[in-house]
Amino acid sequence: VIERIVRCVQDVIDECDLKMDQVRGIGIGAPGSVDSAKGVVSFAPNLGWHDVSIAKELSKQLDVPVFLENDCTVSMLGVYHVELQAKPSDVLGIFIGTGIGGGMIIGGQIYRGFTGCAGELGHMVIDIHGPKCGCGNQGCFEALASRTALFQQIRAAVKEGQDTLLTEMLGRDLEDMRSGDLRKAIRRGDKLVARIVKEAAEHTGIAVANLANILGPEMILMGGGVIEALDQEMMPVITKTARDHAMDGALKDVQIVASQLGDHAGITGAAFLARRELSKGSR
Ligand SMILES: [Zn+2]
Fold first, then answer.
1. How many Å lie between the centroid of ligand 1 and the Cα of residue 143?
2. What spacing in Å lies between the alpha carbon of 186 and ligand 1's midpoint?
3. pLDDT at residue 283 above 60?
4. CA of 189 relative to ligand 1 center, distance in Å
């Protein structure tokens, strides 16, 4: 993975007609729990990583300073510092992609918690009888509403013989399925995909209601690839379900919005992270 990242960075620099010595720093968002001070990915279940010194390794190979944060924290930094003009003091970010992660700004600061792992809201259990999650639990938010979960439900339904336009579009084994294909199918009247996406949006609305009751944020930002592709299909359902299930008053005057940065929140935040950390060093 590290070798691929190195190659990827070199390719981007070439494509931009730059040279490595014009790059002052690199920011990285890594999945799982990270020790940002040491630049170490402590545990990333989806990569099977334990204690990988990714920042040091990349810095050695690319010869520039490298800064590391959790991927959702990085997305949150991008949305908060680059997208939001007003800086609300309490913001909850929910990012739905391959998995589901979150970021919290509390009192204007990123909240990490005592263990540094705060914000793992994808593993909030929504349905104790629900499908098995990668973390070993059952019925986690991520196991119900991530892209992985959506694709699994669609593949299972096709195996059972249910009809969907997706098999016409992509072939029987649904290879190379993307979130955008789900949007296309729904807009062409695909009932199966519409139902599965609506259920995921309802589960997301329940998660939003629970989190609003606990945190009392001023703003809730939804981001990630799934929301970017399906915001028109999902956002009205998410908002309505959240308002139906939150405590009276918990969502009063609270904005629930889709991030305009979409899937670019992460790279934007990673660039912001590198710039901020470098400016600390030069003080
Ligand atoms: Zn889980």
1. 7
2. 28
3. no
4. 32
pLDDT digits over 66-111, tens only? 999 988 899 999 999 999 998 999 999 999 998 898 989 999 988 8
Amino acid making up residue 82: V
Rounded distance from Cα 123 to ligand 1 centre (Å): 4
Question: From ligand 1's centre to the CA of 152, what distance in Å?
Answer: 15
Q: How far is the CA of 35 from the centre of ligand 1 (A)?
A: 21
Ligand 1 centre to CA of 138 (Å) is 7
Encoded tokens for 2 = 């590290």
How close is the Cα of 245 to the center of ligand 1, in Å? 22
Q: What is the pLDDT of residue 135?
A: 83
* 215-224 confidence digits (pLDDT tens): 999 999 999 9
